[in-house]
Specification:
Keywords: ATP-binding, Magnesium, Manganese, Metal-binding, Nucleotide-binding, Nucleotidyltransferase, Transferase. By secondary structure, the protein is an alpha+beta fold. Helix content is 41%, strand content 13%.
């Protein structure tokens, strides 16, 4: 085994005990054809030296990595799905495979799967993932990371050689198993399950574990004070991630409580979409008929989910203190949204927060009123006054006219460009930004499905990587 000597494995999750998970076996797949391996992040955790045979053995056959979990475990959780409580959830087509530490910052990281076979929580499903679904998640995580979003990382995608029947895509369709690298798989739904089962002692046990493993700065002298500080940290980080989604024009699509984890990291991508133009009512999931998870509703839904977490902590902390902590979400989100918008525009925060807020509001008001392409407008205006010529010459120039734009342009010209805006990178010499709009994704999938042609997929990942480097993400 060619592991880096710096590899730092962990078995931290096992300390919770078997009331929180079930040992499971991976599926025995006909094939293990590597379609994607994230060597950059593999290097961050000491796994980049694995050759392809070793990679397929660990991330397609799930042979244990030395020093980490002796076998896969399916995590137990419940959750609200589209507002309705479901006590029959849990890892139904995935499991926690390994834990290790980030060699750059020491964080505890998980390698979890999607499409790795049935578990006790499969609910009559086949436990598989379509290749199309795996490709979509690889693309989503890559672009979100490039945009600076706090996201899980797609670590591996292996085609597994099975034919799957699905009602939402032409079938039979090809199968795959995805491995994602995440900063925790403990979800709001993990706490909800324990509240539903009235297991107060295990709520305290899970809280202590989550604090020690992920939020040691929340530890206080009493359990109640620790619970409040823990909720405060989760609210702050979820608010930041939500603001990053909004600044990226990203619609997650399925913001159920089992898809929100305690570190605030964005993960589990299904029917996601990026906005073509600014539209608060834009939805990603074809089955989201009421628009519950529409782009503009995402902050409200995140707070609703956090309120469900606070309900679970009533076993530990006073209601009034938990409610007061939830009250901090909205101002945290608003502040983060201003900061994230300025970051995407390549502008420095000024000494006047109200002026920054006005500039950001002006930009989003213009974006909505003009109908300008979402990512093009951010691309064209990155660097403020340094971008004026590029904006005037680019394909979005026709949108940049009129009195409202003149006021916005003057405000942006007065703002201070960020020295790290990356405008000297070749990415910004192009006329158009990197995007992942629905037609582009469909073209990538069509090439793979029709001709087994991966060139569009690889080219898009190269384009995203150039964007990531240019943005310094």
């Amino acid at each position: 085994m060619s592991l880096s000597p710096d590899f730092r494995p962990s078995t931290r999750h096992l300390a919770l005990g078997d009331a929180f998970f079930d040992p499971v076996a991976p599926a025995d797949f006909p094939r293990t054809d590597i379609r994607y391996r994230n060597d950059r992040w593999a290097a961050r955790v000491g796994l980049a030296s694995l050759d392809d045979a070793e990679w397929a053995r660990h991330f397609g056959r799930f042979a244990p990595l030395p020093g980490t979990l002796p076998g896969p475990i399916a995590l137990r959780y419940h959750g609200h799905q589209f507002g309705h409580y479901n006590p029959d959830l849990g890892d139904g087509r995935g499991f926690l495979f390994a834990q290790m530490h980030d060699l750059a910052d020491g964080r505890l990281l998980d390698l979890g799967t999607k499409g790795s076979g049935t578990t006790p929580w499969s609910r009559a499903g086949d436990g598989r993932l379509t290749l199309n679904g795996g490709i979509r998640e690889v693309l989503a995580t890559a672009l979100l990371e490039a945009m600076g979003v706090n996201t899980s990382k797609s670590f591996s995608l292996i085609e597994t050689g099975e034919d799957l029947e699905r009602g939402d895509e032409p079938s039979p369709t090809r199968s795959a198993v995805l491995v994602r690298l995440s900063h925790s798989h403990i979800r709001i739904g993990s706490f909800q399950r324990l509240r539903y089962l009235e297991e107060a002692a295990n709520i305290q046990r899970l809280l202590d574990h989550a604090v020690d493993a992920y939020r040691p700065d929340a530890r206080r002298d009493t359990p109640a004070a620790t619970a409040v500080a823990f909720l405060e940290g989760v609210c702050r980080d979820v608010a930041r991630t939500g603001a990053q989604w909004m600044a990226a024009g990203f619609v997650h699509g399925v913001l159920n409580t089992d898809n929100i984890n305690v570190t605030g990291e964005s993960f589990d991508y299904g029917p996601w979409r990026f906005l073509p133009t600014y539209d608060p009512a834009f939805t990603a999931a074809y089955f989201d008929h009421a628009g519950r998870y529409a782009y503009g509703r995402q902050p409200t839904v995140l707070l609703w989910n956090l309120t469900r977490l606070a309900e679970c902590l009533l076993e530990v902390a006073p209601q009034a203190e938990l409610e007061a902590t939830l009250g901090g979400f909205a101002p945290a989100f608003r502040a983060a949204f201003v900061e994230e918008t300025l970051r995407r525009l390549g502008l420095r925060a000024s000494a006047d927060p109200e002026a920054d807020k006005r500039l950001v509001e002006m930009f989003w008001t213009f974006l909505e009123a003009s109908g300008a392409p979402f990512e093009q407008a951010l691309f064209d205006h990155r660097g403020g006054r340094l971008s004026a010529g590029r904006a005037a010459r680019g394909p979005g120039a026709a949108f940049y006219a009129g009195e409202a734009y003149g006021v916005l342009r003057a405000a942006m010209d007065a703002a201070e460009p960020d020295g790290d805006a990356g405008l000297d990178h070749a990415y910004f010499a192009k006329g158009e930004p990197c995007t992942l709009l629905h037609p582009e994704v469909e073209a990538i999938l069509a090439a793979v499905n029709r001709d087994d042609d991966w060139s569009l997929f690889r080219a898009k990942l190269d384009e995203i990587e150039a964007m990531r480097v240019a943005y310094g993400a």
